[in-house]
Amino acid sequence: MMEVARSGVFHPELFTFKEVMIIFMAVMLADVLLLNIFNSLGLPTSTTVSIVFDLLGASVCAAFYKIYVSDGSFTEIFNYIKSDKTITIISAILVSVVVAFVSGALIQFICRLLFTFRFKNTYKYLGGLFSGFSITAIIYFLVMKGAKGASFMKPEYIEFIENHTSSILWICFIGFTVFSQILVLVKFNVFKIIILSGTFALAFSFAGNDLVNFIGVPLAALDSYQTWTASGQGATSLMMDSLNENSHTATIFLLLAGIIMVVTLYTSKKAHRVIQTSINLSSSTKGEHEQFGASTPGRVVTRFGLGISRAVSTIMPQSVSRFIAYRYRKAPVVKGEVPLPFDYVRASVNLVIAAVLISSATSLKLPLSTTYVTFMVAMGSSFADGAWDRESAVYRISGVITVIAGWFLTGICAFTVSFLVCLLLNSFFIPASVILMLIVVMIIVRTNFMKEKTTETVALVIEAKGDNKKIMEAVSGAVPVFFDLQVECMRRTFENFFEDNEFKLRKARNKASNVLYQISKERSEYYTMALDKKQDGNAGTVDAKHFFYLAFSNMREAAKSIRYAIDQAVTHVANRHTIFGGEMKNSLLDLFKRVEKISQDMHVIAVNPSAQNVELLIKAYQEA
């Protein structure tokens, strides 16, 4: 897989050391910028797609620049780019997304028919068999197929595996089936073993693919530098045909890269946000709030899907329909338990199928998007599981379309940005390098080390469920923060309205929309609080939940009003009406000063949120 970064997209033997280093530098800068933006938006994106199109954009630019400087014909561009291999890579990624969705849907449908949602009874008879099959599949695709290129796999090991494949598989299948069935009989949940094995396999599969995306280009650049220093030639005279040779990566680099990836996944709030997007779109639970709104393509696909569903229902025999409906009966929600996004059966299918697809493609040396394969398997299994009903389908489908559109956007943006960065580096190497590096560092620091105001509030709300004290802390912490954000929206609106600045007014409207979205999202947590009945015997907890609902409902209404007011301001300026002055302007500014005073008082009360302090503040406002 490392060869894709070194020589999979362009012919390195036609580029000098300096040109290759500019290509690699452009790829790294563009990749960091793009992935940071997508993660900030909470959208899953593909490191494979971004790295392939980054390499393509930068190498195309370098080739064009080389041809332009040498007064050659631009038709020679195809001599520099491996267009056939690039098309194969892109096609493999596209096909893998479709295969992932279909595989996830088909296998989940079969598993659900076998186990049903009330799987405790069928689990006694099929649990061991399902576990044996799943673990054997993981061993085959991960170890027997996927690990052939590992340094610890000696030729004699590989030869033994190839000569005894069927025997090994049968031994594994029978052994794990018997072992799992024994665990079932002693009332141990073997789904936990499947999920743990699937998680390990998926992590192993990701490491074989995403780790290359992470360090492939930097290591290719390091190899190029070492070749140049050893050659003694000039940077503009040494041709980099050495990149066509097989790479031998030092284990220490792989270990360090792996450690960085693990730490980042564990600590990055953006990574958690991306994970939450996948969970939201595949969840069987329904709240008041969906992450994505309805879109026209989503409505069209939903309408088309309903039409197909009706047609299939008409053709399908009634006995088959009744059988499927019987097997798809939902399990009753146990009082006091918060429903999970999906159960053990779907979790097992998601992990095993994704791991099998990724490891098998890696063994065939086909680069694919691990992110989108995992995502589409989850979407396929949730679709087959009936998680997308008529109440949520349009929102879920719109979300999936948004994520898939992000794939194409990633490719277009990666190509364009890396092309432009490469052009800047070719034209103004030293100043462009310094400026671009500073921009990248500034963006990374700003987005990763500067806390968002709402981060702590979100954590408080999530932890608050079922705990009277934590619910009150969540409210007292959230109200001042969100009120401050709304005051900031008002400040920007007044400033830009009186300056007749439509562009900045629209930015203020976007910020107000984001605040409204965040409040609505946290308000929807009330519905999962309401399902948690563990402490509802305590009247104080019930009152606290109701208070949480009222506080966030009032904040949402205030956010809606501010959003509407900014809308009117944008329309007023867009229509080029006269900007307010005189008494009207003074009245609006006076209103804003009062709101600012309320915001300051809220922070004072948040320190000591007693009923007496609130009453004193209300009395002071009434007398003012």
From TrEMBL:
Membrane-spanning segments: 20-39, 51-69, 89-115, 127-147, 167-186, 193-215, 247-266, 344-364, 400-421, 427-445
Listed GO CC annotations: membrane
GO MF term (any one): phosphate transmembrane transporter activity
Keyword terms: Membrane, Phosphate transport, Transmembrane, Transmembrane helix, Transport
Pfam families: PHO4
One of the GO BP terms on file: phosphate ion transmembrane transport
Chief place where the protein resides: membrane
Localization: Membrane
InterPro entries tied to this protein: Phos_transporter
Membrane-protein topology: Multi-pass membrane protein
Family the UniProt entry places it in: Belongs to the inorganic phosphate transporter (PiT) (TC 2.A.20) family.
Protein name: Phosphate transporter
Organism: Succinatimonas hippei (strain DSM 22608 / JCM 16073 / KCTC 15190 / YIT 12066)
